[in-house]
Specification:
Keywords: Cell projection, Cilium, Flagellum
Strand content: 5-15%
Distance between the termini: 27 Å
Strand order of the largest sheet: 1-2
Organism: Thermoclostridium stercorarium (strain ATCC 35414 / DSM 8532 / NCIMB 11754)
Helix content: 40-55%
Order of helices and strands: EEHHHEEH
Protein name: Flagellar operon protein YvyF
Length: 141
């Protein structure tokens, strides 16, 4: 369901539908800047973050965000360093290395199973209101 949020770039209110928290104008601008960076990197694959930023006029923080979102990837032997947020090993894109991603996925599955078991034993019947909605704390008011 759409939410109302403030755009991270221009701080205008807009109807948020998912993805980066940007209004339609700033999202279009962001996509144009991304294409500019992508085209530059195709031509100069070994460029540093500062060289890319200077040549395209795009802030290094945006380039770094695209790397973490896996929209861009650091080329082999690139001077740009991107490290796993969990163990610190060098990665080419994203936030976590493959090993840490697998470990986090296992931990999430374990936590999900534990929660499902606990809720299965402690399940409290909820009553629907006249609109068909359930309220966890309806009788406590």
């Amino acid at each position: 369901m759409p939410e109302i949020r403030y755009c991270k770039e221009c701080h205008r209110i807009f109807q948020y539908m998912g993805g980066p928290v940007l209004c339609s104008y700033c999202r279009k601008k962001d996509d144009e800047e991304f294409e500019k960076v992508r085209a530059f990197l195709k031509e100069y694959p070994g460029a540093t973050m500062q060289e890319v930023s200077n040549a395209t006029g795009v802030k290094p923080s945006k380039i770094n965000r695209w790397l973490k979102e896996e929209r861009l990837e650091v080329s082999e032997g690139s001077p740009v360093a991107l490290n796993c947020e969990r163990c610190g090993v060098r990665i080419r894109s994203g936030r976590f290395c493959i090993e840490c991603s697998k470990m986090l996925a296992r931990e999430m599955m374990q936590a999900s199973g534990d929660l499902r078991q606990r809720l299965g034993r402690e399940r409290v019947p909820f009553e629907k209101d006249e609109f068909g909605l359930y309220y966890k704390h309806k009788n406590e008011t």
